[in-house]
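Replying to the earlier thread about multi-chain prediction with a worked example.

Input:
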Amino acid sequence: MDTDRTAARRITAAWLAACALTVTSAVVATVTDSAEHEASTLVSILVLGLGAAKAWLILDEFMEIRVAPTWLRAAARGWLAVLVVGIVVLYLQ
Amino acid sequence: MNTLWDRFEGVMVRGEEDDRIAGDFNMWVFVLGDLVIFGAYFVVFMVHRFHEPELFRASQGHLNLLIATLNTIVLLTSSQLVARAVHAARQGDDAAVRRLITQAGGLGALFVVLKVTEWVIEISRGYTLPSDEFFMFYFCLTGVHLLHVLLGLLIFGVVLHEIRQGSGRRVTLVEAGATYWHMVDVIWVLLFAVLYLLR
Amino acid sequence: MNISAQSISLWLAAVFGTVLVAAFVLFPGFLPPMSPEMSSGEVAEFYAENKTWIRTSMVVFDFCCVMLLPLFMVVVHHIKRMRTSTDVFAYCYLSAAASGATILAIANLFWLIAAFRPERNPELLVLLNDLAWITFTAPVGMIIAQNLCLALAVYLDQRPDPVFPKWVGHFNIATAVLTAPAACAAMFKSGPLAWDGLISFWLRLTLFAAYIAVMFFMLRRAMRHEALELQRAPELVPA
Amino acid sequence: MSATTETRPAPAAATSTDTLEGKRDLSICWWITVVFYGLFGVIFVPLTRLMPPPGPDMSTAQITEYFQGNRTGIQIGFVVLMVAIGGAAIAAGLIAYQMTLMSVSKIYAYSYITTLAVGALPGCLLGALAFLAAVFRADTDPEVLVLLYDVAFLTFVGSLGCFATNYLVFAVAVLQDRNGIFPRWLAYVAIWQIVTEVLAAPVFVFRSGPFAWNGVISFWEGTILFGIFLGALIRLSRTAIRRQPIEAVA
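Result:
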């Protein structure tokens, strides 16, 4: 495991990144409220991607999936990937 | 003896401890299970959204995005506090762990307060559970998530109690509590994206 | 201390058992038992005519049928005294007795509800009457489970002087087997298996009465044995 | 309820006897539990077709046809259930007994057994009785059939409290238990069950969609998770029986 100081820094970095992603996705979603159909579909895909990135960050940094045994890492990441792809596919129908 | 299946059998059936995994193995069964269940909820939501995208988009407009975004920040902050608490617990710094967990619990309580106010606003404007399909999903999904947040606060209480008792298992307990709380955070992040932002 | 508890429970069952038989005789629907093939007119007329007797007898019935529960708890106590490897049968017996008593408690409520407004639409009276009779007769599973657990406990009991003689086990098995066909009362409207028939009504109820009587005397015998045992070595057997 | 023997069995140490020998009463109860729940599945799915449930939004004519069409199946299935329902009580007794072996107070075991004793009626028997009453006569008025249809499904899918308490008590007991009678992850599966009970609450509001009594979330998810929980409980109960050291029966 990395030393105490770098661990703390990694957590803060992951936290700030997640907050930034939240705010940007909220702003982007509200800005394109009035836009016509094509733009909002594209934006929705972007928003989903940002959400997935946040989830990946939490899994990797906070839940320490990065250093977990392979089966657990595969299970967690596999779940996230399958779910997000499923949502996008269902959204695009 | 230690093929994967045998270790799996050992932990799952004979309840032996497997320390290579962060936190308590049993908690991971709960977390992964819950993620799969919530995943099913999202898929069902998307299928029903597919049938009536216009209704869902219209009703979604009535949601209060400000409180939801604020709530996401609150939960993310609480989550990173818990992550710090895990590292402090590994250093054996009980005082820091107690402080961080209490702060995280406080933010969790704030999340509950914000969520209930958001509901009250929605209900006061006439959007209740049976009013239409979107709000049925909205109240049920955020309701079940709120139930998980309350369960998380209860777990923090148990962790604080165990630390005050100085029980030998407190590092595993803090890790298990952290794993659970992060799972609640992951679910909220996805819920926020799908319920609030998906236009 | 637990001897007096046992004797109180047994006398509760004895006294209220007899009152139960009286209520049974007074209920106009039991002697002779109402036929499932009565038309809605006849059912409406039955309730209109006998509503006072139906109400009194069913209220008394509702009072007394759950008073038998303490007797079943005395049985649970004696199962725990048996030296089988574990006392799992005591817990199973308790669980079955609890659910069984609830079923009886619900059954007579349907009669009382029907008799409350005899001027009701006859179709609804038929429905309530059907529900009452089916709930009263068909669910025999709990009694079967009780008897089965007691019988198994008696067979597996390895005490030098067993709590109950082996024939009590056979008696329990026999009662369970002969009560089982009463479940078919929910299928047939005529013949011995109907709810007024020989097997589902007469055999089942006489067997139930006989079962309570026999267990009453066997429990008194087991209680006396336990009292003797307590005098000889009080510290051995915990309270 | 004083136990005759106060010896607390040793926790699941390696030395425990891993056999079924000498524990005939436990294995009898275990086999009765397995047979009962197998029968339960056969009765409720193929025979009476109460599960998977037809929707609450069926018309009166469809409901009448649903009953008349499967009259014999319903009668045979539920008569067998009337005889076999005792298996549920024996299953409750077995698990409650195993909970008395835990290092926790017996209050949990007593609560476990009483919640199931209560739950057996509204949760299972009342629905069966309503169905039997519905098909008892060929000429029952359709309005009465719709009433009995609602009584059956709303009691079967909608009785929440007794089972939620049961799962809660079981989860708390398993989490606090130091003797490791059941592994802790089973307690977490029980907590899922509580969540599915909460999610079954909307069946009293909705007639269609995922939260109706035949909805994907309120019914299917709860049933699938119940299947997982029951399978795990029965399998782990067997392990607990095998690992339980028994003093030599004199």
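Chain D touches chain C through 55 residues (CB under 8 Å).

Feel free to reuse this layout for your own posts.
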